[in-house]
Design goal:
alpha/beta; Immunoglobulin-like; TIM Barrel; Oligo-1,6-glucosidase, domain 2; 3 domains; 8-stranded parallel sheet; 6-stranded antiparallel sheet; 22 strands; globular; binds 1-deoxynojirimycin; hydrolase activity; GH; Glycoside hydrolase family 13 protein; hydrolase
């Protein structure tokens, strides 16, 4: 044994922190793949992805072996925030196709055994929504204005915003209307927008707003969807009186307060939101099958998050605490334990996620330094650039660890190809409102939203029938195109496919979890047992020797051999038969 190797320890014993949880509902252990429609596949050659494009590539997801697909918004929208600004909740935006295209996509997905989850954006609408247009045309104090958060300003002539809240995309969270003849003494009113000024917040104390969204749920349930991802699920109810708050709001709350923002202000996580989800739970119950709601709620501590998935509320909540955890064995063990224990206490499955359309992809994040805490929302050409090789190696190890964990896991399109962010996008192609509202201080999220590479030798890397792509693809995407990875041993696609197949066969999603005793406090090894599989992740520099005779099921990278036996190199995860 070389001195730098870590000797084998028995992989037996240890504390079980999560009991096996055989559940009948599909969402308890599903692997759900996020499709970002504008960047998945383009059916008509306009450079923007669309529903026919998605349908044409669903075979890729069936081959990969996921259970469900979640689609980010494809509804009618001026696309000021890439579709999270909806003008008609019951219509497909012409850029993405038609309702018939949606039905065809849904039918094909179901044929392939894939469930379909759609995005619901209830905290705000687009300013082009007929309700907001009616509110602008109506007088202060009218019923039309009551559907949104209009207020008189403070100070002389109401010239100061109603409070000091800041938009999550930067700048003030209030915009003042143009003057009208029937304005009161406080002059033109202001409206609240936690995000862009084109995304006015709805007033969830208004009964019509509540009824409308229950109807929207039914509209899509009638069209056969299996669930909803609920945008800003922690934001719909604001603290009474809208008190000032001096904190800094953040969509992505980095671990250890890394980006200096938090979600603890009076605009988030108010007790009143739970009544909404109890009502929605009942709506879903009217339908057969196991329909589900998943909360996008950036709240902490985790015990607050668990309140969203109590028995009569939503079914799942994204585990962002896991996403922001550093590449550190102790911290990973802590977040896994806390996640499972907290969700077990309310009978909900834990979820796991490493990437989505709002954060730097984990293949880039983990290539920045020793930690997972880089800039969460975007890397620009002026920033320190990630080490692509290190990032991919760690990303594969992190994913293989994640896919072993009990509960439900979320994948973001392209991570199965090992895609990094585009970290050198020029400013003139950027589209994220966060870039504009912060005057470039934040580059924004465009770098993780690049059109996917399907075929290395085609124009636009096979994104669509033309060479147009709404954001440019980096040269590094060519070698990572899907057709370069199918059937190729050791490719990231085959790693994901292999892991998903084993996860299903070994029923890991429903398994119990035990921390392997010999590594329970190890500074740079995570070792756990789920069902009959032992998982080891080596985050340290020294290779970890595996016990003699260990049957390797899958590894995130090549293992090494020495006189002492097979060893697990740095930044690598392995699954072994227990
Ligand atoms: C969260 C979504 O994931 C993000 O993309 C969007 O900008 C905000 N909510 C506002 O809807």
């Amino acid at each position: 044994m070389t001195r730098t190797e870590r000797p084998a320890v028995p992989l037996t014993g240890g504390d079980q922190i999560h009991a096996p949880a055989p559940g009948t509902e599909w969402w308890r252990d599903a692997v759900i793949y996020q499709v970002y429609p504008r960047s998945f596949a383009d059916g008509n050659g306009d450079g923007m992805g669309d529903l026919p494009g998605i349908t044409s590539r669903l075979d890729h997801l069936a081959k990969l072996g996921v259970d469900a697909v979640w689609l980010s918004p494809f509804y009618r929208s001026p696309q000021k925030d890439a579709g999270y600004d909806v003008t008609d909740y019951r219509q497909v935006d012409p850029r993405f196709g038609t309702l018939d295209d949606f039905d065809a996509m849904r039918a094909r997905a179901h044929e392939l055994g894939l469930r379909v989850i759609v995005d619901l954006v209830p905290n705000h609408s687009s300013d082009q929504h007929v309700w907001f247009q009616e509110a602008l045309a109506a007088a202060p104090g009218s019923l039309a204005r009551d559907r949104y958060m209009f207020r008189d300003g403070k100070g002389a002539d109401g010239a100061e915003p109603p409070n000091n809240w800041q938009s999550i995309f930067g700048g003030p969270a209030w915009t003042r209307l143009a003057p009208r003849e029937d304005d009161g003494p406080a002059g033109p009113q202001w409206y609240l927008h936690l995000f862009d000024s084109s995304q006015p917040d709805l007033n969830w104390d208004n009964a019509e707003v509540r009824a409308e969204f229950e109807d929207v749920l039914r509209f899509w349930l009638d069209r056969g969807v299996d669930g909803f991802r609920v945008d800003v699920a922690h934001g719909m109810i604001k603290e009474t009186g809208l008190p000032d708050w001096d904190g800094k709001v953040a969509m992505v709350e980095g671990s250890d307060g890394a980006n200096g923002g938090s979600n603890e202000g009076p605009m988030f996580d108010q007790d009143g939101v739970h009544e909404i989800y109890r009502a929605w739970h009942k709506v879903l119950d009217e339908y057969d099958g196991d329909r589900c709601l998943v909360a996008e709620a950036w709240v902490s501590p985790m015990s607050r998050l668990a309140r969203y998935v109590r028995e009569d509320e939503m079914q799942q909540a994204f585990n962002f605490a896991f996403l922001v955890t550093k590449w550190n064995a102790g911290k990973l063990r802590d977040v896994v334990t806390e996640s499972l224990e907290t969700m077990d206490a309310v009978g909900a499955p834990t979820t796991w996620v490493l990437s989505n359309h709002d954060v730097v992809r984990h293949a880039s994040r983990l290539g920045l330094d020793e930690t997972a805490d880089g800039p969460m929302n975007g890397i620009g050409p002026a920033d320190v650039q990630p080490d692509a090789e290190l990032g991919l190696r760690r990303a594969r190890a992190a994913t293989l660890l994640m896919l072993s964990l009990p509960g439900s896991a979320y994948l973001y399109q392209g991570e199965e190809l090992g895609l990094p962010d585009h970290t050198t996008l020029p400013d003139d192609v950027r589209q994220d409102p966060a870039f504009f509202r912060t005057h470039g201080a934040e580059v924004g999220r465009d770098g993780c939203r690049i059109p996917l590479p399907w075929e290395a030798d085609r124009p636009g890397l096979g994104f669509g029938p033309s060479d147009a792509t709404w954001l440019p693809q980096p040269e590094s995407y060519r070698a990572l195109a899907a057709d370069q990875q199918y059937g190729v041993d050791g490719s990231t696609f085959e790693l994901y496919r292999g892991a998903l197949g084993l996860r299903r066969a070994e029923r890991l999603g429903q398994g119990g979890l035990t921390w392997v005793a010999g590594y329970a406090d190890a500074a740079d090894v995570v070792a756990l047992r789920v069902a009959d599989v032992i998982v080891l992740s080596n985050l340290g520099a020294a290779p970890v020797v595996l016990p003699e005779g260990a049957e390797v099921l899958i590894a995130s990278g090549p293992l090494t051999e020495s006189a002492e036996g097979i060893a697990l190199p740095t930044d690598t995860t392995v699954w072994i038969r227990g």
